[in-house]
Amino acid sequence: MANFTVCLGHFCEVHGPCSIISTQISKTKNILKTKASNLQTCQSCQLSLPNDVNNIVTKSKNEFFISSQYPSNQDLYRSLTKLIMKILSVETSDISKPLFLGDNANGFTLTRIFKIKDLNARGGERKYCLMIVSDEEHKIMKNWRVSSNYLNEIIDFLQSKVNKNDNSSKGNNNDNYLRRSLVKPKSLIELCGDKQIFIKLHLSAIELIKDIK
Amino acid sequence: MIGRLFRQNSSSSLNLDTSQQLPIQQQLQQSGQNSYEDGYTREILYGVNDKSILKPFELNNKFFRIVVSQDGGNLRTKQVLFDSSMNETKSNKINNNTKSNLSRNILTSKIHHNINELHDYMFGCGLPTIEHQSVTKIHILPIVNNQTYGSYKSILITRLFSLTDSQDSNDQPISDWVLKPTLPINETKINTNSKNISSRFGIGLVIPLPDDESDIISNNWNVICHYLIVLQKIVGKKLINILSENVQEGTNQNNYIINRRIQFPSYTLSGDNDLFNQLIKLIKLTNYNSNIPKLINSNSLIKTSSQIPKFHPILINWVVEVLNWLEFKELNQSSKFLSSLFALIIPLRFQLSENPIHYDYDSTSNSKDIVRIVIMTGNPMVAKKLAFIINGLIPDSKVFNLLSDDNLSLDMNELDIDTDIDDDDDNLSTHSRLDAEIDLALDDENNDAISEDYNYKPPVINSKPIPIKGRSSFSSLDNSFSNPSFKGWDIGKSTTSTSINSTSKNLPITKSSLSKSSSMAYLSSSLNSSLSSSTSNYSLTKLGGSFIDKWKNSFNSSMNTNYDNIDYLPPNKSNNVNRKLSVQTLRTPSPAIEIEEFNLPKTQSMVDLNNNLKKSIKIDDDLISRTKNSVYKDGTFISNDNKIKNKISTIMNQEYFNIEDDELSIDIEPINQLPNELCNYENLLPNVAFTDEFRSEFILQSCPINPRLEQQVINSMKNDLLFYQNNCKINNISSRTIFISLRAREIKLIEMKSGETISPTNIDSPSPIQSYFSDFKRNGSYKTSIKKVYTPTKNHGDRELINIIDKNLNQMNDLFYQNLKETNNEYNNEFYEKLSRLVFKLIN
Ligand SMILES: [Zn+2]
């Protein structure tokens, strides 16, 4: 069986390219026990869950869908980190379109880079990527249409939530200038104005994995 | 003309009487479509009546482009080594000094993307990487607006690779995260005296495809990967050659190695003819794979025809076409062409269901077995029928699982019970075919049991597949050719030898006289046959779309001369006996009646059968839907798009989630009210009805008559061996082609093998493309053999199997005639069940 991982990557202004949430399917409830101790995070790049837990788990039939900041599998962790680094700090791409990246050392991914408006970010926007990753290239290719549809729908919703939640346009130019100067990390929860946004991303990722596996 | 006539022929059998009364001329005027486009053809070949299946995809060749560039090592310094969009003459190539001063043709520069823009996509904009592994990328490019040619969308496929002398780290992790590229590649290494030389190169392919047609790329990804690997090897080899030519005499210094980095001058490869040929290959690859629809897997469709969820007429239609072939195409009652063909194909059916371009990571054997079927004919109508018949024999477990009802899902082994074929022999042989009372040779007990619950849908069919001896029978076939004593003809047990005699005596042809004018089929087919004698009638232009001619014409004639064998050197002249034969047959038709011509219909009954058949069987368009390359069950890809939208919308707008939490995790229940699951889909096997030239990526195909066809097939078989040996580290590779020449009424089996078990007595032919594989290791020679399995005068097939099949076909025929007589040809369940059982013996 192919391994599929759905991952939201982010280019954190403080910590560089990193994963915020990644969702895997597993036969066992193989959850992340502790947060990686060497992992520096801030509001922008951390997975904030209720009660400060590390994992979201959904049991479906005999399988577990587990979301955490990073996958518990070390090889997958390494691959994912490299892929996110490439996608967010090396690749050039039309950000309205999906991008396929097949790396014979790190894995295969269909991804879309997207930006979210935030006056508290440098340049007024934050850069993310939503990816579906597999160790089998042909599985990614076979499901191109379904996967890219999912990526587009999820990103559209995130962006429209942020736009609805965006109050910055109400202020005057001076106000904007002041805010812009105040660069600070912000979570997607705050940007979207939705405390359950990571739970929704988790559930969306489950549907994507179910539909292509 | 053929097309029109045929359309009339088939629609007359579909829609019956009205058209039959019309004079030919009138019918010709009324039907404007060709044979490839009529509804019945679409149904039997593609499983649907959807016309869009055949709609060709307009691709402008001018927009295709290949770029080869090197990463200069500094941020954003890349040098172009080759760019097919450059308008360069041979004189530039001779004078190396002018290369860097090439000016871009003003017109071409406007119709292509800026090269720096492409470099940003290919190499990215970050710091130079130190990685060595191959990287593949697909970008959807911005639209180019051009005043002359209009605007177009395109995609960029990038392959990054390194030329390095450092060794692979080979640190494939030991976990369940195991990387599996579509096809593995054996990276090209260089040998230098200095150490740690490394340079990164990029190959960019620009393909003009709108991004909403991602289907074309994703469904044919294996073909594109294969192409990319070959191109990467060619480019790597060329660069290494240039490098080795530039060692300073008397030193170990190389002019092109600077600071442990390879630095070729810009446009080092420009004007390279091999690379321009690769561009033509890319254009052709894209055209053939995006425009020729793949056949529906009719084998799966037949097996599930009673389940999905309504009755699908394909089983009946398959039988009708088989019986028509027996009646109209066989030379005489004992020629057994079709039975012989079946006997060759059936033992190889599982190998035939494997894509020729496929690497199986789960396979434990160090072997690869490739089998293709090529039909050479000048008559597209006959090609179509035979392709449909053969396609019915080729299983596809993925499509079968997709189509079969989950609850009813037939384990194929479950069918393997009851009705021993040998028991039927006596029944058959004791009855005369002219006698109306034909024993159908089905066990009565069994029939009763089945007919009980038969009201709603046909039950699971119990039948015993024809006892195929598998690979062992194949090797006995081998013996029959290499050994004049014909071991393979050894019939063995006495029961079967009886059946041989009896079947040949009792062929199921009723010799009633035919009133010619009453038969539409006869009129059109006889006209048809006179028309088909002109071989030029066969072209994809007439069959599907006009795209092939359009893009062919856009090349200049000098390029055209390279079309057929771009990968290869000229054919080996020492081994051309068979080729000469083909040329001869082409010019002087053999005295035997050509199989491509329709024989006189021997009976009227077949026509009646056809008419009555199709009256009661109509395809339901909702059963399946498909694109050119894939099949969807219970919906379409568009309905999938909508379901995804609904799912995400439901999740994102959900207010409340049922959450339980412990110290480490929160548990979320799945959402119950989500829209239905997506409809499932599968890629279809690369089986096609028609192609105007041989394509190695197809398993089953029919090609127009061409004296070079056989050599093209042989060349691509050599290519198979080289590819899998070099990139997949597979030692035992076998490539086989069943080559059917309808005009010569000949079936050949071409075999090529590599591996340790090669005997030196056979024909040795080193592959012409060997030179492109710099790291090619000669693991032994290639054994090539060409055997005539069937000719009008000799039959070297597995006689035992042929007779079993022949008998089964006769039983199918009998059943039809009996049904015609007894029920005025209504399809009752009993008939359908009996017929299914006979069909399953052949196709299971
Ligand atoms: Zn951070």
TrEMBL record, chain A:
It comes from the Eukaryota. This is Protein Lst7p.
From TrEMBL, chain B:
It comes from the Eukaryota. This is Uncharacterized protein. The lineage of its organism: Eukaryota, Fungi, Dikarya, Ascomycota, Saccharomycotina.
